[in-house]
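About this split. The held-out portion is used to measure sequence recovery: a designer receives only the structure tokens and must propose an amino acid at every position. Recovery is the fraction of positions where the proposal matches the reference. Here is one held-out target exactly as it appears in the evaluation file.
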């Protein structure tokens, strides 16, 4: 597709999205919920053909030499399809916030003033790899009464096209315009440049992918952007803590899945509990092949205790030098998305908070502690979109937060922060109710 054809295609998508957004804004709750339930049904009914389409994407990705963590993001397994279907049903069961009026107050003049929640209008979504994002974005768009233009990565084109076709079927079945959710039909990168520069058609852009993509969109967009650049998430093991809980949660936060942006990438350990905690978590990481990039103090503790933590009787010994490295300054900033974690011993809560606020990407950070005061300080003082107490950072997800699904994670402070669900795709406008009042 040449440049003029790309531009014309994107203008047509924009025009159709703007027209569809007006129909979605006036649509009833029942119709939107029907579309979501029908989409859930279609996903389950088409689980096998969806996986066939997905296998073509996986085969191309492996043939192109894509790294395994990136291939993992492409997978559309039965469990992922079922999670998407459940997300649609969860959204359908949630109250409709569109049209809600809050804070209605009567003024001395006699008028009543409040704020009404309304759809944003049209959002553009640019994302890489994960095809389930197509359903998450579409379902949230439907529930919030918006229209959207989706531009998935070329590596998932077959999966995304198959999913988008099901979305169009569900919209039509509910009497809603199929153009309310459109997938950009070309993998030409010029389409991204067009999508982020159409303020006459698109009200907000949401990039979801690698840091390079998000930096490009942020720099070139002519419409507002909801974004996060990366996910350097921290788990801080406090003094005092429940050691068994700390080992279990830290293990889950790092190893449950390596590729998501909410996986813990940096582990901070209070000096008072480091000699007891680090050998235990070191044994867990060693058994799973997680490379540990440590400060000097953590390295000494791990080395002194390594013999007890290093041998699996069914395998060869796991040597200290194979899995433990000295951390560099860059490691404290790094989002690995791989079986690698940085580890630092800190004096206590103050140093942990200072370290996180300096090195964190302000995505998600957790404290594991038995001290209520420490927990409250962590929640107040850590400047991140999600702050957690005694829980895995892997919970930073719209589905887990009860949002039904998420359009992405925002580390901005305006207009949305953290997992972005229905309310993040709406706006508030002032409404004034009167009975003939005039201003004197």
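Reference sequence for scoring:
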């Amino acid at each position: 597709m040449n440049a003029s054809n790309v531009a014309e295609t994107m203008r047509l998508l924009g025009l159709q999205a703007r027209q569809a957004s007006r129909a979605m804004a006036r649509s009833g709750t029942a119709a939107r919920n029907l579309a979501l339930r029908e989409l859930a049904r279609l996903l389950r009914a088409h689980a096998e053909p969806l996986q066939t389409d997905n296998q073509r994407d996986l085969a191309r990705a492996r043939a192109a030499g894509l790294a395994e963590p990136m291939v993992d993001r492409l997978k559309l397994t039965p469990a992922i399809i079922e999670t998407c279907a459940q997300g649609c049903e969860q959204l359908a069961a949630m109250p409709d916030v569109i049209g809600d009026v809050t804070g209605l107050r009567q003024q001395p003049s006699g008028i009543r003033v409040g704020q009404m929640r309304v759809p944003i209008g049209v959002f553009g979504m640019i994302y890489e790899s994960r095809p389930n994002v197509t359903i998450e974005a579409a379902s949230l768009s439907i529930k919030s009464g918006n229209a959207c233009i989706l531009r998935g990565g070329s590596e998932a084109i077959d999966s995304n096209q198959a999913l988008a076709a099901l979305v169009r079927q569900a919209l039509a079945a509910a009497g809603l315009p199929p153009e309310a959710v459109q997938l950009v039909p070309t993998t030409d990168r010029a389409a991204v440049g067009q999508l982020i520069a159409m303020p006459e058609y698109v009200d907000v852009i949401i990039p979801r992918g690698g840091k390079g993509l998000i930096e490009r969109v942020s720099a070139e967009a002519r419409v507002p952007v909801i974004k996060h650049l990366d996910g350097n998430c921290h788990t801080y093991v406090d003094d005092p803590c429940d050691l068994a809980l700390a080992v279990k949660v830290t293990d889950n936060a790092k190893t449950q899945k390596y590729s998501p942006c909410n996986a813990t990438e940096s582990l901070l350990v209070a000096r008072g509990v480091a000699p007891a905690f680090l050998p235990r978590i070191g044994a867990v990481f060693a058994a799973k092949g997680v490379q540990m990039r440590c400060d000097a103090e953590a390295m000494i503790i791990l080395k002194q205790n390594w013999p007890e933590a290093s041998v699996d009787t069914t395998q060869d010994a796991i040597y200290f030098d194979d899995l433990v490295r000295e951390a560099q300054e860059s490691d404290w900033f790094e989002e690995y998305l791989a079986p690698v974690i940085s580890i630092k011993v800190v004096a206590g809560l103050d140093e942990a908070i200072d370290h996180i606020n300096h090195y964190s990407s302000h995505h998600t950070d957790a404290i594991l502690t038995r001290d209520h005061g420490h927990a409250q300080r962590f929640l107040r003082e850590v400047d991140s979109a999600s702050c957690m107490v005694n829980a895995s950072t892997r919970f930073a997800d719209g589905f887990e937060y009860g949002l039904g699904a998420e359009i992405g994670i925002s580390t901005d402070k305006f207009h949305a922060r953290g997992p972005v669900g229905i309310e993040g795709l709406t706006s508030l406008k002032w409404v004034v109710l009167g009975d003939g009042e005039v201003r004197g």
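Annotator remark: Residues 3-25 form the longest helix (23 residues).
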